[in-house]
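The methods section describes the discrete structure representation at length, but only in general terms. What matters is that the chain and its backbone geometry are given together, residue for residue. For illustration, here is how one protein appears when written out as sequence plus structure tokens:
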Amino acid sequence: MQDSVCKVSAKARTVISSNICNDEAMAANITKRNIINQSSASPISFVSGAEKSMHNPKNASGPSKQGQTQFKPRSKCLVHGNGNHTTEQCKVLKRIATANTATTATTAIKVTPPTITKKNCYKCSANVPWSPDHATTCSRDKVKRFNSPTKAFRSARFSGHHNRSKHSPAAVNLNDQEHSHGSMDIDISSLPTNYDCKKKTSKQNEVKTNHSLYVPITIENIDTFALVDSGASFSSIDITFANKNNININNNVSGSIIFATNDNKSKRLGTTSKALSLIYGDNDDALIHTSHIFEVLPLSFDTDAVIGLDLMPKLNILITNLAVKHPNKKPAVKEEIDDTPEPNNAPYGTNDQQINFMAAVKSDLDQNAQIPKNSFCTVPESIIHLDTEKNKTAYRSPYRIPLKLMPVMRDCVDTWLKDEVIEHAPPSSEWNSPLTLAPKKDLQGNLTGYRPCLDPRLLNSILISNDKQPIPKIDEIFDQLQGSTIFTTLDLRQAFHRFQIYKPDRVKTTFTFQGQQYMFKGCPFGLKHIASRYQRVINSILADVPYALAFVDDIIIFSKSYEEHIIHVQNVIKKLTNVNLILNVDKCHFAQTSVYLLGFCVDAKGSRLDPRKVTNALSWEKPSTGKDIQRFLGSIG
């Protein structure tokens, strides 16, 4: 290196000498104003009259004893910040220092600056002589130059991957640098960063008197103060505090931290590798001992730790007297959410589970649908005998059918003939029961149509009923449903018509329509003992399946799990198919969490009254007089 310096050409020496001479003239001019102060053992430094006043408060104002005028405002250097020299002066002295090094070997030019005493940095308490190099590491100067944030990291929260925060020195954006008029001789990006420079240390028994919420706390047996920040969603400690006290940091983290101001984001530095022990409280008898994992951040100034919302409950730090509404304003009333499932329209599980359920029972439903409509139940007990009193017959003339309803009756009779539910009666029959039309209504009580049926009341009066099969009690059925969570209800197509009438007794069901007499092969609705006989037959079919119950023609299957319910439904459908009982799939409800049954709504919570059955009662006016109350009590018994 020395050889290469010695080989500098004469022209180069001339240029260097010329520049140095010019710089020396400027440097001499600066020296006359007491600006340049350099020590032979330290780098070039500047101390102005203004800075002297900062060190000596007694000379901070007014002219000096030598008659000097009041000091001028501080200059600004893009490298060293606000101080005692400008950027151009810094460049001059930089070139002088470089030239001194380059000409040492050639002894061409040598500049000997004046010797003065060293001055310590007035910005920190480290007792370090001030110099440009120290200015790059001085934390107080660095904070001002890099426009550091306030003490509290307000409303900090985690986010996804973002760029480094503007608070980090590695990502500083100097506005002054953007507007500089020339290139700098010193690379600012290469300046060292040192969080420890002039960092104030916590003092025992120190009392915070500002408006920030600082509380004493012991972290890993180290007494310090922490800022209580209710706007921070997490707690953090200063990276300098962690390094100084040998607290291990886990740098294997990702994501970023968002602060309160817009576009103020910082890449995460890390967390403490373990939960730090904490002691909090000012009463020895009521100290709180806990531990917590902190986020590591370069906190500003003398803040060693920040207590966020995640740590406040552990330390029993509470926020009280929070308002919940504006004065004289009522809070908005939220609509009540009715989470009660709608019966027959509350599928169990997900859509995929419903699809899988129907796929599992599809083959059984297809086999049931193939049962001939002109067939009858194969259970021997399903054959109906119509025993009547001796020497008595039942004959009643046909009712007149309104002309506008005649097509309804005609269609019904044709369907019965097609399905072989009825057949032509023998001539000169002594028996006859009239046909009638029963109105059909929807759940709101509105008329939806008419159902043709036989009026066998005269026949029932002479029938000898010998079947005393009891109908199950509704309460007993509901008791057996307890604990079940999934239900299926099955509806049988023309259930009573599937029971065959004993052939010699069919003539007793004769009816007349449009001059023709017909008699039933399958049992019609309305016969006196058909309900008991039907209940007996269904009970025998479902005798070995405790997960299915029948109330006459209403069948319910109940299970405690989705998987077993599939098996239960398959078994019941197969049993009905084996005895030629046809399902009306359109009225069946499969795998429901709530169903209608016998005028009630049934679900996993139990049973409740079907609201459709009390529509009229709900529309009653509220009793307002004593007479109204008497009427109400009389109507409900």
The chain has a mean pLDDT of 75. The longest strand covers residues 447-454. Residues 10-32 form the longest helix (23 residues). The two ends are 119 Å apart (CA to CA).
